[in-house]
Q: What sequence folds into this?
């Protein structure tokens, strides 16, 4: 044997694998970690919803790059002491800020299984991709889309909205836009959404190279539903000056108050005007699972694309965003790109085309589908629909509590699962901003704040399946207590 071959052989033989030396020890540690996390979820009520991060805890996460190995047990201890107690709090039933799902123990276990398989769902022929395709099929059926529709898991609705803009853009300008860029005719494209649409729609227009100014913000009525007549008039005016309307984004559950646009009317407008009809259903779209809410989403079945999050009302652990596109060919036309190293075969591991990487910007992708598959199979859509209904019933209960309390003022009718209200005070914006922060820091609950018609509102979005009447009562009591303190201090 030559000297170099000998050296190479002895180096290659050295044990540098990252697997444990002692599987028994790892197994015992793993069981402890799993037990602790099950306890964490089961006993979440005993913890504060959220707590401020002490400086010394934050400082620990400024430490340098670890060069030497450490015991898993020691690293886990750090997690238990310095990470778990300072998480967002959305697992807790008192969390009502922004629009966060609560996750489930089932979803957590599914995440562990997915990490064990360590599957890459960019492509190739393996069952994890069939699991994702099954969810595409279930979602297609859920929204009454035709055969040939396509779908893909993404991080969240912000990404799904961006991808929908890209699909609509390619459909409007043709394939050449992908080689030549948006210039020329692209500069004329205009899109339409209500003033209550989520900010990520504007950002999507920016990222797609169309510019956020090309999004027309159309006024809403008093219940935050888009004024379709005003949108029609704006489209007409834009055509007259030579612009090229191409896209309408309807909201199925606005971020501020949960308003649902008239999706039937928007669909009709899009058919008449030959526009792409996209629905931002980040959390509201899954309302189709509830027999009481489904009629209010009528017209969503006519959309060209829908963005939604299984991690919000669907309670799958973060992240599990999803884009559904009515015409799968148009979806592929926006993203598929040939590459020699991604060559497809009719058999072997490189079979199974089209691959998910043909439907979005990502090549490497995790197995988001598994936690959603476990969630849908374990609970079933009827139970998930009933849970969604219950969050809306809790919002109505909170609304009733606000209306019955002279010290509180309702700022918008609760249309879905979001209630916006405030404590009456001489300087209401200032006082209510402080109340929201005080409540968050108290650990009792975690509402967020928003601006409605120029007024600062305490916003409670009831998304978590664990939230119940006790949590609503605790929030109201906290608002009254901190409100009284704030006004006394003023
Ligand atoms: C209506 C609406 N659209 C879009 C988004 C953004 O979704 P994500 O945070 O999953 O990107 C949200 C988030 O709350 C939302 O409520």
A:
């Amino acid at each position: 044997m030559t000297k170099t071959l000998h050296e190479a052989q002895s180096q290659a033989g050295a044990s540098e694998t990252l697997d444990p030396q002692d599987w028994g020890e790892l197994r015992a540690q793993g069981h402890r970690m799993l037990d602790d996390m099950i306890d964490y979820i089961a006993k979440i009520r005993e913890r504060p919803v959220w707590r401020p991060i002490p400086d010394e805890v934050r400082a620990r996460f400024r430490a340098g790059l670890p060069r030497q190995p450490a015991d898993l047990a020691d690293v886990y201890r750090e997690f238990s002491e310095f990470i778990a107690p300072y998480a967002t709090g959305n697992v807790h039933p008192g969390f009502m800020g922004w629009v966060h799902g609560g996750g489930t123990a089932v979803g957590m276990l599914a995440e562990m299984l997915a990490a064990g398989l360590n599957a890459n769902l960019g492509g190739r022929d393996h069952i994890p991709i069939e699991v994702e395709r099954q969810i595409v099929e279930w979602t297609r059926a859920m929204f009454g889309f035709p055969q040939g529709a396509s779908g893909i898991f993404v991080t969240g609705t912000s990404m799904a909205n961006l991808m929908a803009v890209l699909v609509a853009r390619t459909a409007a300008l043709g394939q050449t836009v992908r080689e030549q860029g948006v210039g020329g005719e692209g500069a004329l494209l205009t899109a339409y959404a209500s003033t209550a649409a989520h900010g990520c729609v504007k950002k999507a227009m920016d990222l797609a190279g169309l510019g956020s100014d090309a999004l027309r913000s159309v006024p809403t009525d008093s219940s935050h539903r888009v004024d379709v007549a005003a949108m029609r008039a704006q489209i007409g005016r834009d055509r007259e000056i030579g612009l090229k309307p191409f896209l309408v984004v309807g909201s199925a559950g606005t971020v501020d108050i949960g308003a649902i646009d008239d999706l039937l009317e928007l669909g009709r407008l899009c058919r008449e005007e030959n526009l792409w009809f996209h629905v931002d259903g980040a959390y509201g779209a899954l309302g189709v699972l509830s027999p009481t809410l489904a009629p209010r989403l009528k017209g969503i079945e006519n959309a060209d694309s829908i963005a939604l999050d299984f991690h919000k009302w669907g309670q799958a652990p973060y992240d599990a965003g999803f884009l559904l596109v009515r015409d799968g060919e148009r979806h592929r036309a926006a993203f598929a790109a040939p590459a020699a190293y991604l060559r497809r075969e009719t058999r072997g591991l490189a079979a199974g085309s089209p691959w998910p990487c043909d439907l979005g910007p990502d090549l490497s992708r995790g197995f988001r589908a598994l936690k959603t598959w476990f969630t849908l199979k374990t609970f079933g859509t009827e139970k998930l629909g009933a849970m969604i209904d219950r969050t809306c019933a809790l919002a109505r209960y909170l609304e009733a509590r606000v209306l019955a309390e002279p010290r509180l003022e309702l700022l918008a009718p609760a249309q879905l699962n979001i209630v916006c209200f405030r404590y009456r005070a001489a300087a209401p914006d200032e006082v209510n901003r402080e109340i929201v922060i005080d409540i968050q820091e108290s650990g009792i609950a975690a509402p967020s704040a928003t601006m409605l018609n120029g007024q600062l509102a305490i916003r409670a979005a009831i998304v978590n399946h664990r939230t119940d009447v006790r949590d609503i009562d605790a929030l109201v009591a906290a608002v009254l207590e901190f409100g009284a303190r704030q006004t006394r201090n003023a």
Observations:
- The pocket of pyridoxal-5'-phosphate is lined by residues 99, 156-158, 198, 200, 251, 253-255, 280, 282-283, 309, 321 (CB under 6 Å).
- The first strand starts at residue 150 and ends at 154.
- The chain has a mean pLDDT of 96.
- The chain is about 45% helix and 10% strand.
